[in-house]
């Protein structure tokens, strides 16, 4: 019947996507493995990022530069609604199958530019960017876009590299920036109306991963200016 044919068609689509994902990962595995070998175990980064995120209920959550969907898979179960954004259709296919396999039906994926995200103002309670900003020409602009989409009292968590001198990453792995100092990230937060409230450093050799957490101040009743939430 129609339902059986639809299910068979869906299985074929997922199988094709899985094959495409395998080919995509194989084509890029050397680059990713080379990067992973330079910094602390990714499981440790994920564990610390998860610990810094709100506990059992996030509300509305967005992961920008969602890639293969691992961070969305990690934090999505805590959210009432969740979304992932990426400019790469190939990566979105991979993420879509990961999210479907995890049973996260309340998570959606969108194709779009993180400098001009296809979401309204003040929509999200949490936004994450995991090892994304070093690929950008203008990370500060991306932080301002994150702030635009955050509700008052919402939080942004960015995980990226501390400053380093591995200039070869520019040519070999398309890195635009060689890490970020906390002072630089704090300035971007401040310019975007966010306040840096927590930082963690996970030392690696030679790359150190930093995780920065910022909050969008909640407005006091009747006040025009925002103030930091208690």
Number of extended strands: 9
Judged by helices, strands and strand pairing, the structural class is alpha/beta
Radius of gyration: 18 Å
- Average pLDDT across residues? 86
* Fraction of residues in H or I helices: 40-55%
Distance between the termini: 58 Å
Helices, strands, pairings?
Elements: H1 2-36, H2 42-52, E1 59-64, H3 70-75, E2 79-86, H4 89-101, E3 107-111, E4 124-130, H5 139-149, E5 150-161, H6 168-173, H7 182-191, E6 195-202, E7 209-215, E8 218-219, E9 226-227
Parallel strand pairs: 1-2, 1-4, 2-3, 4-5
Antiparallel strand pairs: 5-7, 6-7, 8-9
Helix pairs in contact: 1-4, 5-7
Summarize the structure.
The protein has 230 residues and is an alpha/beta fold. The protein has 7 helices and 9 strands. The strands form 2 sheets. A 7-stranded mixed sheet has the order 3-2-1-4-5-7-6, with helices on both faces.
Structure overview:
The longest helix has 35 residues, at 2-36. The termini are far apart. Helix content is 40%, strand content 25%. It is α/β, with parallel strands linked by helices and 230 residues long. Residues 223-230 have low confidence and may be disordered. Helix 5 packs across helix 7 (182-191). It has a seven-stranded mixed β-sheet, sandwiched between helices. A two-stranded antiparallel sheet has the order 8-9. The protein has helices spanning 2-36, 42-52, 70-75, 89-101, 139-149, 168-173, 182-191, and strands at 59-64, 79-86, 107-111, 124-130, 150-161, 195-202, 209-215, 218-219, 226-227. It is globular.
